[in-house]
Amino acid sequence: AQSVAQPEDQVNVAEGNPLTVKCTYSVSGNPYLFWYVQYPNRGLQFLLKYITGDNLVKGSYGFEAEFNKSQTSFHLKKPSALVSDSALYFCAVRDPLDSNYQLIWGAGTKLIIKP
Amino acid sequence: DAGVTQSPTHLIKTRGQQVTLRCSPKSGHDTVSWYQQALGQGPQFIFQYYEEEERQRGNFPDRFSGHQFPNYSSELNVNALLLGDSALYLCASSKWVGELFFGEGSRLTVL
């Protein structure tokens, strides 16, 4: 069955330090992978996606994510965290072989950046 | 270029009432998906509209229905509201299976 796991409910990072938000997935085919961010009482904003090509994908606000096929992971990273990065982060996956086409969502990880 | 717009932003209803939420997709997008997001949870897929037809549906009862208009805008209708329907309802638009762009949501409170 297709699934997405975000193993950490919350990640705490000091401002200026690198951050990583983890995501692992399980799909039958080659996945399409996405990261979204949600600020309090707001909708979700698209950050970045991996479809094919380079395993390191760069996105909005200085975020990047690394696709690792052998580990079935797509961790979100940023070299230097900002307090304004504090938000809820969702990983999502789509299996292009699945005619359903729907995104499978992780449960979300709350990122807290402390000054 | 306007993004996805939703209305109303907030509304309060009582149990048993009906509600209609509206969504205008991002320019150039032809597909609208609706999600329900309860507090502290991830978004749950309700259904998706493309070419004015419901193409996919999540695990939601028939009380949840929708419509897509020729200009690609969409409505979500919920009948016989329950307390558990209180949530943030998110509309997302895309070009068929492209990445989703979300609106700011409609916060529904059922009393």
Could you provide a short overview of the structure?
Chain A is mostly beta strands.
Task: Summarize the structure in words.
The complex is a heterodimer of chains A (115) and B (111). By secondary structure, chain A is mainly beta. Helices cover 0% and strands 50% of the residues of chain A. Chain A has strands at 3-5, 10-14, 19-21, 24-26, 32-38, 44-50, 56-58, 64-68, 73-78, 87-94, 104-105, 109-114. In chain A, the strands form three sheets. In chain A, strands 2, 5, 6, 10, 11 and 12 form a six-stranded mixed β-sheet that branches. A four-stranded antiparallel β-sheet of chain A has the order 3-9-8-7, with no helix packed on it. Chain A is globular. The termini of chain A are far apart. With 111 residues, chain B is mostly beta strands. Chain B is built from no helices and eleven strands. In chain B, strands 2, 4, 5, 6, 9, 10 and 11 form a seven-stranded mixed β-sheet that branches. Chain B has a four-stranded antiparallel β-sheet with strand order 1-3-8-7, with no helix packed on it. In chain B, a hairpin with a 6-residue loop joins β9 and β10 (101-102). Chain B starts with a strand and ends with a strand. The model of chain B has no long low-confidence stretch (mean pLDDT 93). The A-B interface holds A 34, 36, 41-46, 49, 90, 94, 96, 100-103, 105-108 and B 4, 6, 41-43, 45, 48, 56, 58, 88, 90, 92, 97, 99-105, 107.
Using the CA coordinates, give the radius of gyration of chain A.
Answer: 14 Å
Strand percentage of chain A lies at over 45%
Quaternary organisation: heterodimer
Biggest sheet details of chain B:
7 strands, mixed
Key features?
heterodimer, A: 115 residues, mainly beta, six-stranded mixed β-sheet, four-stranded antiparallel β-sheet, 0% helix, 50% strand, globular, B: 111 residues, seven-stranded mixed β-sheet, 11 strands
What is the secondary structure topology, with strand pairs?
The complex is a heterodimer of chains A (115) and B (111).
Chain A: E1 3-5, E2 10-14, E3 19-21, E4 24-26, E5 32-38, E6 44-50, E7 56-58, E8 64-68, E9 73-78, E10 87-94, E11 104-105, E12 109-114
Parallel strand pairs in A: 2-12
Antiparallel strand pairs in A: 1-4, 3-9, 5-6, 5-10, 7-8, 8-9, 10-11, 10-12
Chain B: E1 5-7, E2 10-13, E3 19-24, E4 31-37, E5 44-50, E6 53-57, E7 64-68, E8 74-78, E9 87-94, E10 101-102, E11 106-110
Parallel strand pairs in B: 2-11
Antiparallel strand pairs in B: 1-3, 3-8, 4-5, 4-9, 5-6, 7-8, 9-10, 9-11
